[in-house]
Structures are given as structure tokens and as C-alpha cells.
Automatic annotation (TrEMBL):
Tree of life domain: Eukaryota
Protein name as annotated: Transposase element L1Md-A101/L1Md-A102/L1Md-A2
Alphabetical list of InterPro entries matching this protein: L1_C, Transposase_22
PANTHER family (UniProt xref): L1 TRANSPOSABLE ELEMENT-RELATED
Biased composition (Basic and acidic residues): 13-22
Annotated stretches, region: Disordered: 1-41
Length: 301
């Protein structure tokens, strides 16, 4: 093949001159390096299209990968959370059951508290009644303290009747329903003897025995001191002994009469005839200090 004909340099110069003459300006001659290449433009466009296609493919691949990974992760997370959901559901049911049970128990406790309060009140009332009944059942009893062990022999009732007659100077032996020592174990050598409990048939005779015992004190039997007391319950004895300090104070108040009545009531009669009753030893002591002592003090006499 023959090479394409080349343009002569003369022709190019002539055309250049003519263009210069038309514009009045001299343009520099175009360098061969700045001549545009049609082939390079096509390559650039191809590269651009390929880049766009690759970017689109990349986006599609990333999107599809994300969808795949998202689906797998979701399935794995769902599989991992399923036991937790089951456990939470069971725990929720348990909590609801516990709440219902707690509510029921709260209602039952409220009802039980009301019942306990009522029963406590009833038990307190019944206890007071039982204590009163026991105390009244002992009203005919006397307690004899200080009699040596074994002197009563096989007939303790007859022995105690004779003992009371001799000690108190009674005309006849008192009629006793029964007499026996307290039911605690027999004391050892050196320990105090057990008291006698004697039930007197007549209440008036019992009072006479106690009156003479107080007037004839001290009483002696075989050189041993013997005392005769009413037979009270332990609780009642404690209540009555709480007035001991008040009674001691009243003994030093001339013109004031007092007495401790059943079950444990202190009655104070002032010189003017006013009568006061006290069931609380503290109130009685306060009254004696503030009113009785000042009334019968040396300054007021």
C-alpha cells in the first residue's frame, strides 16, 4: 500500500497567510501534540460507561449482599431470641400469677388481722373472766405458811382444823371441806416447808379466821412462826402487792381509813368522810402524795 500524500509546506504557509490577512492577527502554528485524537475520545467514553456499569454492579452487589446478610442475621437473631421470648413469656405468666396470689394473700391477711384482733379481744375478756372465776373459787380458802413438814400425819384436814382452833383461840374447830399442802415437790432438808391450803366451809368463818390471824400475830407453832393469808391466784397476788407502798404511806396518816378490797381495789376514806377508790397503784400513790399527805401534815393540824 502506498502512503497517503502529504500536504506541501508551501500550501500550508499560503493558507496561514490568508487566514492572517483575513483576521489581521497572526496565529501560531498548531503543534502536532495538541491535535485532538478521535480514538482517545472514544476510549474515554468507553471508560466512563464501564465505570458507570461497574458502579451500578457494585451497588447491586452490595445491596444483594446486605439483603443476604440481613436475612441470615435476622434468622440467627430470631433463633437466638426465641428461647428468650419463651422464657420471658413464662416469667410474665409467673409474675402475673404471683401478683394475683399476692393480691389474694393481701385480702386474706386483712381479713385475718381483723379476725386476730377480734379473737385477741375475746381471749383477753375470757382470760379476765377465768381469772375472776378462779379467784372467786378460792374466796373460802386460807393459806397457812410455816408449818413444819410431816406434822400433819395421815389426816391433814383434821390437823389443820385443830391447828387453827389452837392458834387463833377459836371456841370450836372450824368446819373445813378439805386441807392439803401445795402440790409442789416435797422440800429437801433445810428448805422451807410447803404451805397448807384449807377450804373453809363458811365464808363468814373464813373471814373470822383471817381477822383473828391479823390481830393475834405473830403466831407460833413448835417455836416456828406461822402466818395465815387469803389464798389468791399468783396474778391477783401480784396486783394486790403493788399497793404495799401506798398502804405503808397511809399507815402514817392519822384519821385516814383505808382497805384493800377484792380483787385489788384500794379504798381510802379521808377524815371528812370522802371516799376514793383506786385500781391503779400509781394513781393511788399520786393521790396520797398530793392530797392526803398535805391534808394531814403538821402544818395543817
Amino acid at each position: 500500500m502506498s502512503a497517503p500524500p502529504r500536504k506541501s509546506s508551501v500550501g500550508m504557509e499560503t493558507r496561514h497567510k490568508s487566514e492572517t490577512a483575513k483576521t489581521g492577527r497572526i496565529h501560531p502554528a498548531a503543534s502536532p501534540e495538541h491535535v485532538p485524537d478521535p480514538g482517545s475520545d472514544a476510549n474515554e467514553r468507553l471508560l466512563c460507561r464501564m465505570e458507570v456499569m461497574m458502579q451500578s454492579m457494585r451497588s447491586d452487589i452490595v445491596t444483594e449482599f446486605e439483603q443476604i446478610v440481613s436475612g441470615v442475621v435476622k434468622r440467627e437473631i430470631a433463633a437466638a431470641l426465641r428461647p428468650l421470648e419463651t422464657s420471658l413469656s413464662a416469667q410474665s405468666e409467673t409474675i402475673n400469677s404471683l401478683e394475683d396470689t399476692a393480691t389474694d394473700h393481701g385480702g386474706q391477711l386483712t381479713s385475718l388481722q381483723a379476725t386476730v384482733a377480734l379473737l385477741t379481744e375475746q381471749v383477753g375478756s375470757l382470760s379476765k373472766k377465768c381469772e375472776d372465776l378462779e379467784g372467786r373459787s378460792r374466796q373460802n380458802n386460807v393459806r397457812i405458811v410455816g408449818v413444819p413438814e410431816g406434822v400433819e400425819g395421815a389426816r391433814p384436814t383434821d390437823f389443820v382444823a385443830t391447828l387453827l382452833r389452837d392458834l387463833l383461840g377459836l371456841n370450836d374447830k372450824p368446819v373445813l371441806d378439805r386441807a392439803h399442802r401445795t402440790l409442789r415437790p416435797k422440800p429437801k432438808d433445810g428448805e422451807p416447808p410447803r404451805p397448807f391450803i384449807a377450804r373453809v366451809n363458811l365464808f363468814q368463818q373464813r373471814n373470822e379466821i383471817l381477822r383473828r390471824a391479823g390481830a393475834s400475830a405473830p403466831l407460833l407453832y413448835q417455836g416456828k412462826r406461822v402466818s395465815v393469808f387469803p389464798d389468791f391466784t399468783a396474778a391477783l397476788s401480784k396486783k394486790r402487792s403493788a399497793f404495799a407502798t401506798v398502804k405503808k404511806s397511809l399507815h402514817s396518816c392519822p384519821g385516814v381509813k383505808f382497805g384493800l378490797f377484792y380483787p385489788a381495789v384500794l379504798r381510802v376514806t379521808l377524815p371528812g368522810g370522802q371516799t376514793h377508790r383506786f385500781e391503779d397503784p400509781e394513781l393511788a400513790a399520786d393521790f396520797v402524795t398530793k392530797h392526803v399527805k398535805t391534808m394531814v401534815s403538821p402544818d395543817s393540824i
